[in-house]
Amino acid sequence: MSEEGRKEAEGFRKGQVVQLRSGGPRMTVVGSERSGRGELMARVVYFHEREEKFVYESFIPEALALES
Fold first, then answer.
1. Are strands 27-34 and 40-48 parallel, antiparallel or unpaired?
2. What is the C-alpha to C-alpha distance for residues 26 and 47, in angstroms, rounded to an integer?
3. pLDDT in tens, 4-28
4. What is the CATH number of the domain that holds 32?
5. Are 41 and 32 in contact (CB under 8 A)?
6. How many structural domains compose the chain?
7. 15 by DSSP, 3-state: which?
8. Residues 25-44: tens digit of each pLDDT
9. Which of 2, 24, 35, 46 has its CA 20 to 30 A from that of 52?
10. Contact 42, 29 (CB under 8 A)
């Protein structure tokens, strides 16, 4: 992970709202975890309206943007 990505990952806090830089639903940060390769990942949750359920996913920090 790049130094910039590491700093950004550390900057996400639980409860912050983020979105994929490429678009998609607004998601809430619920924590962080390490991938199988040791990369720091942001853990998020969002509500999938069509399936009417909460979905938990993990993304590399570089893929996420903080919502204003």
1. antiparallel
2. 9
3. 545 545 668 999 999 999 999 999 9
4. 2.40.10
5. yes
6. 1
7. coil
8. 999 999 999 999 999 999 99
9. 35
10. yes
